[in-house]
Amino acid sequence: MKKNIILMGPPGAGKGTLAKQLKDELHLVHISTGDMFRDAIQAQTELGKLAQKYINDGHLVPDEVTIGLVKERLSQPDCEAGFLLDGFPRTTAQAEALEKISREISREIDVAINLDCDHQELVRRISGRRVCKNCGAPYHIESMKPKQDGVCDLCGGPLYQRKDDNEEALKVRLEHYDSETKPLLEFYSKRGLLESFNSLLGKEQLFDEVSSFLKK
Ligand code: AP5
């Protein structure tokens, strides 16, 4: 089984949704840098105050901050069981740092899963996304509705729209993806680690295909 996993793809491709399904099925630790930053913003820690300046407008948090955060998290004992990195790495500097860190702590990457999705669908997903304030579960106002309007099926928490899920910030996020993150597909392909899946398949079919692949 592959247990040290990177999930890649543009904003809205479904990385968070898939990670939440896979972590329960495969008993892996879900490490989402976006969630870590949003938690820090909510708690108004020093990290949160810094991250807020970048995230709300769709910009990337500086590499040195993000790399330090991930290094600390990956070194914790629970990651021995395996981990899903969601939203990291996003730049070449982050990918190179991850290579070094994972070698140092003997937790080398087994695979980089890339989720392909077209631009029109990304815009539809991001503009209709709602997220649970308590547990972070993602919903969509048309295609993944909660049973009760505005309430999380899993924990009963209130659903909200992320501050960076607006047209202007999404444009910036997609530009960062194209210029800084997309080149990493080549980075992992050259190392024989890249595996791409079509995220247009829909939540359950995508999960079945990816989990079967990871269990091999
Ligand atoms: P982050 O939280 O990582 O955001 P993102 O990469 O833009 O990805 P999203 O969370 O928007 O989308 P997703 O792919 O997880 O899709 P989801 O599953 O929710 O990062 C936020 C910000 O933090 C960044 O912009 C940056 O500022 C900062 N940051 C984070 N990491 C960083 C790093 N490494 N370096 C620097 N800065 C960093 O799904 C989206 C919608 O689609 C939902 O409504 C869902 O219900 C629906 N959906 C999902 N899957 C499917 C499917 N298969 N079929 C149909 N609908 C689906």
Secondary-structure class: alpha/beta
Low-confidence stretches: none
- β-sheet strand percentage: 15-25%
Listed once per kind, the bound small molecules are: BIS(adenosine)-5'-pentaphosphate
- Determine the fraction of residues in helical runs and give it as a percent range: 40-55%
CATH topology of the domain at 4-118 and 181-215: Rossmann fold
What is the first-to-last residue Cα distance?
5 Å
Mean pLDDT: 95
CATH superfamily of the domain at 4-118 and 181-215: P-loop containing nucleotide triphosphate hydrolases
Task: Explain the overall architecture.
The protein is an alpha/beta fold and 216 residues long. The chain has a domain at 4-118 and 181-215: Rossmann fold, CATH 3.40.50. The chain contains nine helices and eight strands. The protein has helices spanning 15-26, 33-43, 46-55, 63-74, 92-104, 119-128, 167-181, 183-190, 203-215, and strands at residues 4-8, 29-32, 83-86, 111-116, 129-132, 138-140, 159-160, 194-198. The strands form two sheets. A five-stranded parallel beta sheet has the order 2-3-1-4-8, with helices on both faces. A hairpin with a 5-residue loop joins β5 (129-132) and β6 (138-140). α1 packs across α9, α2 (33-43) packs across α3 (46-55) and α4 (63-74) packs parallel to α5 (92-104). The longest helix has 15 residues, at 167-181. The radius of gyration is 16 Å and the shape is globular. The termini are close together. The mean pLDDT is 95. Bound molecules: BIS(adenosine)-5'-pentaphosphate. BIS(adenosine)-5'-pentaphosphate is lined by residues 9, 11-17, 33-34, 37, 54-55, 58-61, 66, 87-88, 90, 94, 125, 129, 138-140, 143-144, 164, 173, 199, 202-203, 206.
